[in-house]
C-alpha cells in the first residue's frame, strides 16, 4: 500500500495537565505537536489535526483542523471518524493516526501498521510493558475509510472504547520494541514532561 494521510489526535481535554492544549506544551524546547509532526509527517501523504474549539490557535502549523463530528467529547474514536470523513473527501483509502502527546513515536509507524493490517484493513500499535505483557496503543492505528459508516453507527450507539470496536473488526497488531524506552510514552502530567525531557537528552 502506498502512503495514506495521517491524523494527529489532539481532541482530549488534558484534565491531568490542568486543561488546555496539552500538545502545545514544550518538551526539549519544542512543542509536543512539533515533535509529532516531524516524526509522522514523512511517513504519510499529508497531515491533519483533530482538535475541538477555535482552530485558529493551530494556524501556524498549516494543517487542516478537524473537529469531532459527534457531540459531547466521546473520545478518540470521534477523532478517528473525523479523520476518516476528511480522508474520504480526498479519495483516500485509509488513515494512520497518532496521539498528539507522544514525542517519541516510531518513525516507521505507518509502514509497520500497514504490514500488520487484519482482513478488515485495521491495525493497532502495541509494545511490551515492563513485565513483558503486550499493551496496545489504540490511538496509533491504521483505519480503512470503508469502515467509517460502521464507526459512526457505533459511536451513535454509545461505543467509546476503541478496542471494543477494533476487536469486533479483527484488527491486526503491529508490535514495537519498548527498549531502551517505550516509543509510545505519552505526556499526561507535569511529571511526564520532566521524564520526557530526560529521555530527549539521553
TrEMBL record:
Subunit details: Monomer.
Cofactor(s) needed for function: Mg(2+)
Protein residues bound to Mg(2+): 101
Domain MobA-like NTP transferase: 6-163
Recorded catalytic activity of this chain's protein: Mo-molybdopterin + GTP + H(+) = Mo-molybdopterin guanine dinucleotide + diphosphate
Family annotation (InterPro entries): MobA-like_NTP_Trfase (IPR025877), Molybde_CF_guanTrfase (IPR013482), Nucleotide-diphossugar_trans (IPR029044)
One BP annotation, GO: bis(molybdopterin guanine dinucleotide)molybdenum biosynthetic process
UniProt keyword terms in alphabetical order: Cytoplasm, GTP-binding, Magnesium, Metal-binding, Molybdenum cofactor biosynthesis, Nucleotide-binding, Nucleotidyltransferase, Transferase
Record remark: domains: The N-terminal domain determines nucleotide recognition and specific binding, while the C-terminal domain determines the specific binding to the target protein.
Gene Ontology molecular function: GTP binding; metal ion binding; molybdenum cofactor guanylyltransferase activity
E.C. code: 2.7.7.77
Family, per entry: Belongs to the MobA family.
Function, in words: Transfers a GMP moiety from GTP to Mo-molybdopterin (Mo-MPT) cofactor (Moco or molybdenum cofactor) to form Mo-molybdopterin guanine dinucleotide (Mo-MGD) cofactor.
Keyword check for Magnesium: yes
Subcellular location: Cytoplasm
Organism lineage: Bacteria, Pseudomonadati, Pseudomonadota, Alphaproteobacteria, Rhodobacterales
Pfam name, any one: NTP_transf_3
Gene Ontology CC terms: cytoplasm
Binding site for GTP: 9-11, 22, 50, 68, 101
Class of the enzyme per the UniProt entry, highest EC level: transferase
Protein name from the UniProt record: Molybdenum cofactor guanylyltransferase
Amino acid at each position: 500500500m502506498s502512503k495514506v494521510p495521517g491524523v494527529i489526535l489532539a481532541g482530549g481535554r488534558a484534565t491531568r495537565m490542568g486543561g488546555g492544549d496539552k500538545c502545545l506544551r514544550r518538551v526539549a524546547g519544542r512543542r509536543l505537536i512539533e515533535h509529532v509532526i516531524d516524526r509522522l509527517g514523512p511517513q504519510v501523504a499529508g497531515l491533519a489535526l483533530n482538535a475541538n474549539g477555535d482552530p485558529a490557535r493551530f494556524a501556524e502549523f498549516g494543517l487542516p483542523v478537524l473537529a469531532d463530528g459527534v457531540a459531547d467529547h466521546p473520545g478518540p474514536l470521534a477523532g478517528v471518524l473525523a479523520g476518516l470523513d476528511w480522508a474520504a473527501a480526498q479519495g483516500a483509502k485509509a488513515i494512520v493516526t497518532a496521539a498528539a502527546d507522544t514525542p517519541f513515536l516510531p518513525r516507521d509507524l505507518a509502514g509497520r501498521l500497514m504490514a500488520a493490517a487484519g482482513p478488515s484493513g485495521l491495525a493497532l500499535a502495541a509494545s511490551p510493558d515492563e513485565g513483558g505483557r503486550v499493551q496496545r496503543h489504540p490511538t496509533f492505528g491504521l483505519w480503512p475509510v470503508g469502515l467509517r459508516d460502521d464507526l459512526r453507527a457505533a459511536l451513535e450507539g454509545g461505543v467509546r472504547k476503541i478496542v471494543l470496536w477494533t476487536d469486533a473488526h479483527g484488527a491486526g497488531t503491529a508490535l514495537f520494541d519498548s527498549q531502551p524506552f517505550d516509543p509510545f510514552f505519552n505526556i499526561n502530567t507535569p511529571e511526564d514532561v520532566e521524564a520526557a525531557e530526560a529521555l530527549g537528552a539521553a
